[in-house]
Amino acid sequence: MSNNNYSDFGHSFQTKALALVLQDPVFYQQYSDIVQPQYFEDPNLAAICRCVRDFHKKYGQVPGEPELGVVLTEEMQGTNMTLEERQSLFNLISHLFVTDVGTKAFVVDKIRDFGSLQALKGAVFEVVENIKGGTPDPVHIRSLVERALAVGSERDLGMNFGASYASLGDVIKRDKIYDYSRKICTGWSVIDGAIRGVSPGEFAIIVGSKNVGKSTLLANLGFSALLQRRNVLHITLELKETDVAIKYAARISGLTMNEIVMGPPERYTVPIELLGLSRNSLIIKYFSPATLTPTMLRQYLSRLRSEGIAPDLVVIDYLKQMRCVRDHNGYGELVDALMGVMDDYDIAIWTAHQGNRSTRDSDNVGVGSIGDSWQIIEKCDVALTVSQTADQKTHKKLWLNLECARRGKDGIKEIPMIIDYERALVEDDPDAPPKAPKNTTISVVDDYIDKLKVQNVH
To answer: Is the predicted pLDDT of residue 12 greater than 70, yes or no?
Structure first.
């Protein structure tokens, strides 16, 4: 076996396999049987894998970088390892946590092949030893081979509808996507009346032209989630972290962004305290444009988890500024990869995408307005488009169109909204006739505004 041949499961591949274990704890929970210490030929990789296995058995989770360092330090005590060897091991740990493992689905398939091959090799060795013993046990030999063949196999046999249809109601309740208690509403009554919000595992997008207010819309979605006591990770690939923080402060306080900048701080700290944000309720993270990949997002979410921060909603502003899996028009694959992240980390995603030039000064924006990136819409659970003419922008108004709702009512056009760019506020237009039945069960935004009025800070 070559040392650096990826296809032959050499050192390079084994490094990527262990990197995936550390960066994606959900993967290890599903496939711990195919990532065993004895499968790794490099003693350092084997030692790290052994520590991960023991830590997982004891605490039920994969260690983060700090915890792994402590465990390995304890294991090295009393050994003959030199200072250089110890430093090399710690350097390897740091390298594993930042290694780009590539497309997860592809790597997982290869790791399953790797685990199966290594398990078969071990089984063959045991079979030979059993035969050499002079009294071969056919039952034991068959058991060894069958266990080896089962390594890495799909564990989920699917839903047996014939056996479960009588309890289908319970099955639906257990599915997080249909658990309405976990829905994160938008705060916009017509949209919430149609879809009830988004659930963990759902991918939602806003499509609009340049400068229509996509970032403001996304900040309002994050604000609505905060009102529902959900943790929000707002990833910005264009605006700086301070710019986004000012938007949230304006939306929470009812002040203009200029008033936030000019101060004094007391004017917006009172409403923020009224909202009751916890320390980790809202994390704003900037990545340079065209650098963030789904793998990097996994790594960052794992790092947040190691710090005790678990987002419920991830806002990405915006999709086109992420780095595609491929160098050209890879948005379909990009969304697929993000959906894998959602499933593994139990999050919902709201993002935005820029429409083509025809969306400018248009009152009839639809799914065709995203040009050759139609792959995005066909994979979305929820898709909104934004329509706004020059006259509407002057009067701080726009229309939302619910183009796609995989688990709700779609095709609702020209939902009238008010947008106050200075206050980073998007809300229902109270003067417009209703486009559809409004959601009367979700009124967190109205309740919050009432509280602000009582405090005389709105």
So the answer is: yes
The 10 Å CB-count burial string (b at 16+, else e) for 204-230 is bbbbbbeebbbbbbbbbbbbbbbbbeb
- Domain ranges within the chain, ordered by starting residue: 6-150, 178-455
Buried b (16+ CB within 10 A) or exposed e, 38-54: ebbebebbbbbbbbbbe
Amino acid found at 176: K
Q: Is the pLDDT of residue 154 over 80?
A: no
CB-based contact 69:93 (threshold 8 Å): yes
Whether 278 has a pLDDT exceeding 80, the answer reads no
* In the predicted structure, residue 368 carries a pLDDT above the cut 80: no
Q: Between residues 372 and 400, which one has the greater pLDDT?
A: 400
Closest CA to 233 of 338, 318, 348, 311: 311
Backbone φ and ψ for 42, nearest 5 degrees, come out as: -80, 120
Contacts 24+ apart (CB under 8 A), 364-369: 365/207, 365/208, 365/209, 365/401, 366/401, 366/403, 367/207, 367/403, 367/404, 369/207, 369/209
Cis peptide leading into 63, omega within 30 of 0? Answer: no
In CATH terms, the fold of domain 178-455 is Rossmann fold (3.40.50)
Q: Which of the two residues, 368 and 71, has the higher pLDDT score?
A: 71
Percent of the chain with pLDDT over 90: 36
334 within 8 A of 254, measured Cβ to Cβ: no
Task: Label residue 9 left, alpha or beta by phi (over 0 means left) and psi (-120 to 50 means alpha).
Answer: left
How many helices (DSSP H) and strands (DSSP E) are in the chain? Answer: 19, 9
Tell me how many degrees the CA angle 309-318-192 measures, rounded to the nearest 5. Answer: 75
- 417: β partners: 398, 428
pLDDT at residue 389 in the model:
92
Task: Provide the 8-state DSSP code for 307.
Answer: T
Centroid of chain to Cα 166? 33
Token output for 55: 């830590």
pTM of the model: 0.69
Of the pLDDT bands very low, low, confident and very high (cuts 50, 70, 90), residue 96 is very high
Classify 6-150 by CATH class: mainly alpha
